[in-house]
Structures are given as C-alpha cells and as structure tokens.
Write a structure and sequence with these properties.
Distance between the termini: 27 Å
Helix content: over 70%
Shape: globular
Radius of gyration: 20 Å
Structural class: mainly alpha
Largest sheet: none
Number of helices: 17
Order of helices and strands: HHHHHHHHHHHHHHHHH
CATH class of the largest domain: Mainly Alpha
CATH superfamily of the largest domain: MFS general substrate transporter like domains
Length: 385
C-alpha cells in the first residue's frame, strides 16, 4: 500500500469520526433544546420558536462574519476552544434555567458556527482533485450517517431518561470531536481571502443556486414533515416521526455511492436530482395513502443525498485554498438563512391553503432556481470536472 493511499485512508477515518460526532451533537442540541424549553422549562410555543431562532441566528453570525474574518492559525485555536465549549455546554444545559438557557443557546450557536465550516474546508484539502472530491463526498456521507445515529440514539435514550439527561448522554460523543479537533487540517497559506468580495466567486454563486433547489423544500420538511404526515393520515406521533427514517436512509445510501464512485461530470446527476425533487413535491400532493407518501419521501432522499456534496464539489473546483474558508463559511451562512426563513414562510402560507398544497407549491422556487443555475453554468467547466 502506497504512502499516499495510507494517508488517504487515515484522513477518511479521521473525517468520519469528527464529522459524525460533531454533527450528531449539533443535531441533538438544535432539536432537543426546543423540547427542553417546551416540556421542562414550560415555555409557550412562541417562546420555544424564539429560543430555536437564537441558536440559528448566532450560528449565522459566526459562519457569516466571525469565521471568515479569522486567519488559519487563530481559527484553529478557536475551533478547538469551540469544541471544548460544546462539551461543557451539554453539562450546562442539564443545569439550565429559564434565564440561563438563552445565554447558553446563543454561545452554543456561535460555537457550532465556528466548527462546521472548518470541517468542509478540511475535507477539501487533499493533495489532488480526485481525492478532494472523494473526501467531500465522504464528509457529506458522514453528515447523513450522523442524522441516523444521533436520532436513533436519542429515541432509545428517551425511553429511559428525560430531556435534561439527554444532554449528559451525548457528552462522550462531543468529547470525541474535542479530542480530535487539535489534529484537524487547516489551510497552509500565508494569507486567506476575506470580505464580501468573495461573494462574487463562481464557486459560491453556483453552490448557492444548486443547494437552493433542494434546501428550500428540505428546510420546510425539517419543521413540518412529521406534522403533515400526522394531520393528513391521522397516524400516531411515533409513526409520524418515522417518516424521516426512509428519507435519511436513502440520503445516506446516495452519498455513500457518491463516495465509492464520485461523479466527474455533474450535469446529468444535477438534472436528475432536481427532476426528482420536482416529481417528489408533486407526489406529496397526490399520494393516496401513507405508504405512498413514505415512498415519495424516500424518493426525495436521493436529491437530499446528492445535491449537497455536488455543491461542495463545485466550491472546491472553483476556489483556491486561500478562498475556500470564506466561501464555505458564506455557503453555510446562506443555508442558515434558508432554515430561518423558509419554515416561517411555509407556516404562514399554510394557514391559508394548508400544508399539503404549500409543500407542493415549493416546486415554483425550485424550478426558477434550477433555470437560473443551468442557464448560467450548463457549459461551464465547474460542471464538467
């Protein structure tokens, strides 16, 4: 086995461990803090929504402003400190009060925003293009794996303990990320590009347009999919929540296949993925039974699995190492904006026309964004590889 191959395998194992532990912990916090607020601290639904917004708003602040402004050396120190604070925050959430939970959520949001962009950047720093794109696909696969492992672990633990105790049980997982954080690779350049001028970068624009074709519906799914299943098909809470299982499983398998056999030319995969998204959104409207509904949601797991890694590959292809941290940070910040805005808009519109039709109408922004993307980049080298 060559030294290059040995190093690649080591990097791959390292990347999976730190990504799964970081993202599973992040997902647990963002989904359990609202439950802690609602059922332990006895907040109203409005206050619970504001508490969740605090986390995402401060994550947006760190991904859009703080992380891009730091040089690689400082950013590595902040990355390690942030991982350490995440471990501490899980203990503090256990002891949180109606007052301290707000401060804790704000600082935890900042910490998560200083961790996730650097994981994407590290995944793209391999010595050759093929290895970098394979590691980016592996990073995306690890994200999907974490969204299976984390919720499965929490579902099991909730049969034994309450919402406060959940935070304590995730400390060992967060410790893995903290222990590994000092060994994460950062760009080895004297000067990194910063500032809003980077927003004109082709890698940033193309990735934002491509991810919009899927993250608009996914942002709505995250908040309303289980509610839609329960209200439309009159099923129990547990069965409604299980709608995510086929979705994330298919997403994981899609990303795993892209890791094993990466795409070079992204044209056809993107057309197929966006086409499946449109068909799936229409299928939500016409699904005659819960079984058919599950099949449609499973189908939508394919573009969820494929479009994110292809977006990160476009960033890798169109940026220099000096530009990559800023572009990745702004890319994740844009996704945070979608996850802040889309659920609020969908919730508002659904009060007039219902959730099912509102979900289906998401076809409109998906189609418009796809037209913008392909008209601009169809013949561009960024898609051809």
């Amino acid at each position: 086995m060559t030294e290059h191959r040995t190093n690649l395998i080591y990097t791959a194992i390292f990347l999976v461990l730190i990504t799964v532990s970081s993202r599973a912990t992040n997902n647990m916090v963002t989904t359990t803090v609202p439950l802690l607020g609602k059922y332990v601290l006895h907040f109203s639904n409005t206050v619970v929504g504001l508490l969740s917004t605090v986390i995402f708003a401060f994550t947006f602040l760190s991904t859009s402003y703080i992380n891009p402004s730091l040089n690689a050396t400082t950013r590595k120190r902040v990355f390690i400190i942030s991982n350490g604070f995440i471990v501490l925050s899980l203990l503090l959430y256990y002891y949180s009060s109606p007052m301290t939970v707000w401060i804790l959520s704000a600082v935890a949001g900042l910490a998560f925003g200083l961790v996730m962009p650097n994981l994407i950047t590290a995944a793209s720093l391999a010595n050759d293009k093929k290895s970098a794109e394979r590691l980016l696909a592996l990073y995306s696969t690890s994200l999907s794996l974490s969204l299976i492992i984390g919720p499965a672990l929490e579902t099991f633990l909730l049969t034994k303990v309450g919402y406060r105790e959940i935070f304590l049980w995730f400390i060992p997982l967060a410790l893995i990320a903290f222990i590994l954080s000092a060994r994460l690779k950062f760009p080895d350049v004297k000067r990194e590009d910063k500032g809003i001028a980077i927003l004109r970068n082709k890698g940033f624009i193309s990735s934002v347009l491509s991810i919009t074709t899927y993250n608009i519906p996914f942002a709505a799914f995250t908040t309303f999919l289980a509610i839609l299943a329960k209200e439309r098909f009159n099923i129990p809470d547990f069965e409604a929540y299980s709608v995510f299982l086929p979705f994330f499983t298919i997403s994981f398998l899609t990303r795993l296949s892209m890791t094993i056999k990466p795409f070079s030319n992204l044209k056809v995969p993107l057309v197929i993925s966006i086409g499946i998204t449109i068909i799936g959104l229409l299928g939500i409207l016409y699904a005659p039974s819960y079984t058919a509904f599950l099949a449609v949601i499973a189908l939508l797991g394919i573009p969820h699995g494929s479009i994110f890694p292809m977006s990160t590959i476009m960033i890798s292809r169109a940026t220099s190492i000096a530009e990559r941290n800023a572009v990745n940070s702004y890319f994740l910040a844009y996704n945070n904006i979608l996850f802040l805005a889309v659920p609020a808009i969908v919730g508002f519109i659904s009060t007039f026309i219902g959730l099912t039709l509102t979900m289906t109408l998401l076809v409109i922004p998906v189609f418009i964004t796809a037209l913008m993307f392909f008209s601009k980049y169809w013949n561009d080298e960024i898609l051809k590889g």
